[in-house]
Specification:
Its cofactor is pyridoxal 5'-phosphate. It is found in: Cytoplasm. Keywords: Cytoplasm, Gluconeogenesis, Lyase, Pyridoxal phosphate. This protein is an alpha/beta fold. It has two domains: about 220 residues, Rossmann fold (3-Layer(aba) Sandwich); about 110 residues, Rossmann fold. Helices cover about 40% and strands about 15% of the residues. The protein contains 15 helices and twelve strands. The chain has a six-stranded mixed β-sheet with strand order 1-2-12-9-10-11, sandwiched between helices. A four-stranded parallel β-sheet has the order 5-4-3-6, with helices on both faces. The chain has a two-stranded antiparallel ribbon with strand order 7-8. The protein is globular. The N and C termini lie far apart (about 50 Å).
Amino acid sequence: MSNGAGKIPWIETPLIKSASLSELVGCNVLLKLENLQPSGSFKSRGIGNFIVQRLAAARAAAGDPALVAHFYSSSAGNAGLACVHAAVTLGCRATVVVPMSTTPFMIAKLRQAGAEDVIQRGASWQEANAYLTETVMEEARRKGEAAVYVPPFDAPEIWDGHAHISRELARQIRGVTRHYPITTASPPSHNGNGVNGNGLNGEGHSTANGEAVIDKIDAVVCSVGGGGLFCGIMQGLDETGMSATRVVAVETIGADALTHSLAAGELVTLPAITSLATSLGARRVCEKAFDYARRETVSTAVLSDAEAIRACRRFADEEHILVELACGVCPAVCYNGMLQKLVPGLTKESVVVIVVCGGSNISFDIMEKYAASHLDGS
């Protein structure tokens, strides 16, 4: 087994224009394709960065650059898959403890990704996590293993990994006009070299070799579960000088811990997750996400499972991309007309980026079962 030196368990993802969404909304709508990450979702970034950092620290502490650590996750979904993929890529081991409710579909995916073991225990994530940390990992440490717990979303290393999305956007956005027809504003005045007095060509666009270059993003749309992705996007926007960009954080009814917390003015723990969008199923968001969400530049939206299902089906039809409900809520705010209310002042020159976070707990069969049970035959 390779020690994984120099490997990075995530990739830079494409930023593409959606012609259908752009026409529907009336502005430039771009898609950041996190569904193309090695594990099938954005989790490859945050979990991958966490594992890279913790592995380096463990090897340094042991004085052994070839130390094989054993990473442990209690996520039955995309975080678990990201943990397994990152660990195996870096020449390490991974074990996942999942609740009894986990589908054979996801268990098979975890094993296929290279998990050393997938253990089912408990009726909920809380019970599975307790068994992992109090029993499985303690036993592993008694055997002398370098056992490392991998949280699903609440860790600075995870947020920093997800911040790469915004860092990439800051660079990629300037090259979009080379590959897609982008509506840009005409410069109101020039100083003789094709650039107006503040260095911008119209509303946030500059020129390079006579071609318009997009310099700003008006809004980023992302889904929120525990808040790791949201935290990373906000962190990255701050780092790249784009803190004025509006961020739209989307949840589903029954997995809307952030919205409940904002309404209460304090962190709220949901009694249960009742949404089908189980990848958004954190009963409580991390404190950092709650802090970011109170900024004036953040808007939130809560959609029904039915809206998410319809959006996923339409997104698959029009963009040829199949995603989980947790991801489908993002294009849903375009399909249902909410985006214009969430981002006031959109014009045809505005630029909106939808983070297509992906997710592996979906198939055409699963989607049709959702539709049959929740769309009244529509």
